[in-house]
Design brief:
heterodimer, A: mainly beta, four-stranded antiparallel β-sheet, B: mainly beta, six-stranded mixed β-sheet, globular
């Protein structure tokens, strides 16, 4: 398996623009997680899905952020409008199950820079 | 409050020497503990986890971690460091179906 795939790897945009990050989880994994990593706040869970259904979105910072999972092999994280403080590395991860004992497999991340 | 502390921002070790990366946690109930490693410009990779059983857990790349309930610690160890072990290491504890992450420790192995 190719692992978790994220695109783009790097995104530079201007404040106010819409940004869409994409993720393809490992085939057969029922759980998908979106994380944000910054120097100031470390690694934060934004939202996670089980069988394409959002389970916990309490980490989504504000209404400008939205995430969807239209099918088992694709998820998007959208920021509209983007702001400079959204600059971070965004990771997608997936796991077979999530009782806590399962391993999360991370994608390579998308480095977002908002000017 | 549930939390994970990695008290050292950076650890420097000479190649061939043993290494320890420290982690302490605070969580109610029995802890599920994890170590992940992040190489530059890469995602996090799973190293090992403690769920139950033997306090000494062995993981990938020769790493191991020791769970100490009385000290609420889960330190990562390796008997002989390699230059290629240089990376950012994260400890995490499970709480309410979410991983609570430490801030990370940068490990630098010098030849």
């Amino acid at each position: 398996d190719a692992g978790v795939i994220q695109s783009p790897r790097h995104e530079v945009t201007e404040m106010g623009q819409e940004v869409t990050l994409r993720c393809k989880p490992i085939s057969g994994h029922d759980y998908l997680f979106w994380y944000r990593q910054t120097m100031m706040r470390g690694l934060e869970l934004l939202i996670y899905f089980n069988n394409n259904v959002p389970i916990d979105d309490s980490g989504m910072p504000e209404d400008r952020f939205s995430a969807k999972m239209p099918n088992a092999s694709f998820s998007t994280l959208k920021i509209q409008p983007s702001e400079p403080r959204d600059s971070a590395v965004y990771f997608c991860a997936s796991s077979e199950g999530w009782g806590g004992t399962d391993t999360q497999y991370f994608g390579p991340g998308t480095r977002l820079t908002v000017l | 409050a549930q939390s994970v502390a990695q008290p050292e921002d950076q650890v420097n070790v000479a190649e061939g020497n043993p290494l320890t990366v420290k982690c302490t946690y605070s969580v109610s109930g029995n802890p599920y503990l994890f170590w992940y490693v992040q190489y530059p410009n890469r995602g996090l990779q799973f190293l090992l986890k403690y769920i139950t059983g033997d306090n000494l857990v062995k993981g990938s790349y020769g790493f191991e971690a020791e769970f100490n309930k009385s000290q609420t610690s889960f330190h990562l160890k390796k008997p002989s460091a390699l230059v290629s072990d240089s990376a950012l290491y994260f400890c995490a504890v499970l709480f309410n179906y979410q991983l609570i992450w430490g801030a990370g420790t940068k490990l630098i192995i010098k030849p």
